[in-house]
Amino acid sequence: MTWTNEEIAALVEPDRAHRKAYIDPDLFDLEMERIFENAWVYVGHESQVKNPGDYYLARIGRQPMMMTRDHNGEIHVLYNRCPHRGAQLCSARQGNAGRRIRCSYHAWMFNLDGSLDNIPAIDGYDGTALTIDGEDFQVQKAQRAANYRGFWFASLAEDGISLEEHLGEARTGFDQLIDRAPGGETEVVGECFHMVQHSNWKIFLENQLDASHPGATHESTGVAAMTIERDMRKAGEDPPMSYGFLSDFARLGIDGWGKFGTVGHPHGHCTLEGYMGLRPDDPDTNEYVKCMYDAYGEERAEEILGVNLHHSLIYPCMSIQPPLQQLRTIRPISPNRTMSEIWHFRLKDAPEAIYQRALGYYYLVNSPSTMVNADDLFNWWKVQHGLESQGGDWVSFHRNAGYDVIDGPLRKSPDGSMSEMPMRHMMHVWRDYMTANGKGA
Asked: What's the pLDDT tens digit per position in 418-428?
């Protein structure tokens, strides 16, 4: 089906969205063109290409890309495609190419910035249109690439707003992931968790700030954790703090999540405030706070630690949980399949206990093997199947509709609500991207 802008706009109403936005293959192709191959999309963190010659592969929309670090220390975002016969240059997820990247098909050699360095038997091209410095014979770069404090993004559109303008105030999530480190730096730890979700990419984003689902979806996990905590206390033991990550799902109940406010930012970004500020009065936390005071001074350290932020969602591709030192990004595959990557970070000079605390959340809540993630994945799969049926045409986002609090460029949920404002906000931005003829939202 060929979609007109008017038909696309009609799929989004003030308090609901049409199911075809989640299942139609032609709309998915347009999403790749008008959103993921147009907007700023996350590629990776600079610590993933720490050394000269390092490369790391990622996808932007349908395009295979790679992030490289050259021998001058500069980072580049390139298409993973040899300009000779089209072979992908790197196939391992990440690695080190040495001085140059060698195409395994015909041994063309490229520098780490993508420039063509050498062709075997080059005299065979004498008198032809091929030249060693010809534009068509270099590895093509992403049309635009930029980083914010070491987090690298690329846009495949020639023109558009800058990365900083795109991120706006939602960049606080990145600031927190760095500023909470006494050493002022953060780095990726190891490889990420990879999962293929059998659901549309928008369902993942909607779930991240859906305050009404945790107490229902994850209730059984919370009850199990509460039971273990109770039994340990009866035996005279203190349960590990990490058990509280799970027992909160039951302890707060279905209606107890309204105290966590959500904020909609320009360009589709959203933030969740209030939940899980990990600052109990225990020796490990006190040691960490002392490290922060020593590094920043008491006033600045308290400013950093007092930021009311649990979760930042950067539209259209990622979410950050700074207090838990993790980042998730999505790579859409098809209308009903999405690759997610979940990365964990270490804060430089923070006590090891603080890292282990955050790592506990990473394993207990967001790993592929945890019950929490299994609950989500199963529900998303069920949602996708339901939307593919003819049992109804609309997805409801009616909770607290019409009661958003407008604060300049920000859209906030009413106090004490479990508003579906973030879902409405993102779908309205989706409509704007999809009807902007490649000009962005």
From this structure: 999 999 999 99
User: pLDDT, tens digit, for every residue of 173-209?
Assistant: 999 999 999 999 999 998 899 999 999 999 999 999 9
415: tokens are 């106090």
**CA angle at 169 for the pair 165 and 171, rounded to the nearest 5°:** 85
Q: Do 282 and 133 form a contact (C-beta atoms < 8 A)? A: no
Q: Tell me if 412 is assigned to some domain.
A: yes
| CATH number, domain containing residue 81 | 2.102.10.10
- The answer to whether 45 and 343 are in contact (CB under 8 A) is yes
CB of 53 closer than 8 Å to CB of 98: yes
Helix (H, G, I), strand (E, B) or coil at 306: coil
Give me the mean pLDDT over the 120-137 stretch: 93
Integer CA distances (angstroms), 356 to 42, 166, 291, 361, 371, in order? 26, 33, 16, 9, 20
Q: Are residues 69 and 141 in the same domain?
A: yes
Residue type, 175: D
Same domain membership, residue 196 and residue 126:
no
More confident residue, 226 or 281: 226
**Helix, strand or coil, per DSSP, at residue 376:** helix
Q: 126: Cβ–Cβ under 8 A, 6 or more apart, which residues?
A: none
The DSSP secondary structure of 379-410, one letter per residue, reads HHHHHHHHHHSSS-SEEE--TTTT-PEEETTE
How far out from the chain centre does Cα 413 lie? 22
User: Looking up tokens 């966590």, which residue turns up?
Assistant: 260
Q: How far apart are CA 390 and CA 19, in angstroms?
A: 10
Q: 130 and 275: one domain?
A: no
How far is 55 from 112, CA to CA, in rounded Å? 9
**Token digits of residue 317:** 């591709």
CATH number of residue 190's parent domain: 3.90.380.10
Amino acid at 47: S
Residue type, 337: R
Do 298 and 403 belong together in one domain? yes
Q: How many CA atoms lie within 13 A of 50 on its CB side?
A: 7
Structural domain boundaries, residue 397: 169-212+257-434
Tally of domains within the chain: 2
70 & 183 share domain: no
Domain presence at residue 231: no
pLDDT at 278 (0 to 100): 62
Structure confidence at residue 276 (pLDDT)? 58
Is the separation of the CB atoms in 397 and 419 below 8 Å?
no
